[in-house]
Task: inverse folding
């Protein structure tokens, strides 16, 4: 076999490794979600300053003073992954109560379907979820225009499913008191989400 | 240069460009229709470029100018399978859907892979060809099973049902291709490596 023949194979192999390495974020991530989670864990991302409305129409922000926030994105008509997420958030709420983490961690649900999810409809969802208002706030963006940047930051893709619903990815997003997204975790990683959130909380100066 | 094949290749690429939205709307159309169309356009492009020095004296090595670098087509076929593997990575597929630039890179790389494959395949011996077919079959079937079995969605742009349909189709296509290859090998034994001048 000639030198050029061998060299051709070597060059080709290097090119293949480079292509696969680029596609997989240096052989660390097979999916877009994993890659985003690794990016965020390496360097926290500031969350855009979006105004949210709760069930009473009161303005809310994504981050909270002193407390970390575990955020999920839902739409209340959803029957599949969101109700699963709802169950996960109920477990999170129960665990926060059991471990007395109320002063360090709070929960925030954000609707990505603000045209349907008005504050009034959030009220019904609140009752359904039995959300404890001191821990769990359910919100919708004040203006739909703020949604794309928000979803991009959190790595959430919402695709119309062609049947009056949405296909979307679900995760537990941890935002620290300074409004930085510090972790994106799988929805079943309840303990890890609470540990990360609690570790980023700063003890509040004064209880509100 | 064979004009008809070249025109057909360009027309195929144009067709893929025009139908980008519908073909990328579902995973099965994207992976099983669009990607193969681009590769086929590449094969046509490769076939339209007549190999130089295509003489029987150089049987067993590529007839193209890159022949000495692409002995038995191995380097070329390795590169081609690398391109195929890259666009099976869910993250890469997502990026192609979300960015026109990445989609352009995808299309060019697949067309180039097709052209390289056409020339490399002609240079390959029966042994190399068998290896490539076996390798591609293994890769496709594994990826199909992965899609069929994945507990969660792998592409953020496609639903879980898309994923199962695509996985099942990949497994069926692979089995069909393996059976067809076996039948062909039994009833039409492979001739020695081909280097018919000017196809």
Result:
């Amino acid at each position: 076999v000639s030198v050029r023949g061998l060299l051709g194979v070597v060059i080709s192999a290097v090119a293949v490794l480079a292509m696969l390495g680029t596609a997989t974020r240096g052989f660390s991530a097979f999916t877009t979600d994993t890659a985003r989670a690794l990016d965020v864990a390496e360097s926290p991302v500031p969350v855009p300053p979006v105004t949210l409305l709760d069930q009473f129409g009161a303005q809310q922000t994504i981050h909270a003073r002193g407390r970390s926030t575990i955020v999920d994105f839902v739409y209340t008509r959803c029957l599949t992954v969101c109700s699963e997420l709802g169950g996960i958030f109920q477990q999170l709420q129960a665990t926060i109560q059991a471990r007395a983490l109320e002063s360090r961690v709070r929960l925030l649900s954000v609707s990505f379907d603000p045209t349907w999810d008005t504050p009034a409809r959030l009220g019904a969802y609140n009752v359904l979820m039995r959300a404890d208002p001191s821990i769990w706030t359910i919100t919708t963006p004040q203006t739909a225009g703020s949604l794309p940047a928000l979803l991009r930051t959190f790595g959430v893709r919402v695709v119309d499913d062609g049947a009056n619903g949405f296909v979307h990815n679900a995760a537990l997003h941890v935002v620290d008191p300074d409004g930085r997204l510090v972790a994106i975790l799988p929805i079943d990683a309840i303990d890890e989400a609470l540990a990360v959130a609690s570790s980023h909380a700063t003890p509040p100066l004064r209880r509100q | 240069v064979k004009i008809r094949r070249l025109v057909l290749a360009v027309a195929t690429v144009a067709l893929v460009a025009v139908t980008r939205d519908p073909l990328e709307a579902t995973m099965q159309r994207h992976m099983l229709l669009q990607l193969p169309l681009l590769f086929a356009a590449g094969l046509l492009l490769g076939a339209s470029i007549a190999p130089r020095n295509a003489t029987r004296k150089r049987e067993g090595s590529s007839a193209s100018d890159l022949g000495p670098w692409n002995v038995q087509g191995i380097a070329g076929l390795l590169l081609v399978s690398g391109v195929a593997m890259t666009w099976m990575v869910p993250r890469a597929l997502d990026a192609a859907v979300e960015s026109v630039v990445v989609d352009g890179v995808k299309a060019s790389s697949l067309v180039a892979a097709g052209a390289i494959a056409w020339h490399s395949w002609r240079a390959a011996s029966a042994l190399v060809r068998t290896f490539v077919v076996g390798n591609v079959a293994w890769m496709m079937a594994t990826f199909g099973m992965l899609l069929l079995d994945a507990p969660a969605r792998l592409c953020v742009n496609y639903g879980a049902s898309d994923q199962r349909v695509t996985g099942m189709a990949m497994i069926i296509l692979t089995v069909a291709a393996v059976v067809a290859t076996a039948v062909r090998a039994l009833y039409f034994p492979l001739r020695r490596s081909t280097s018919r001048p000017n196809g």
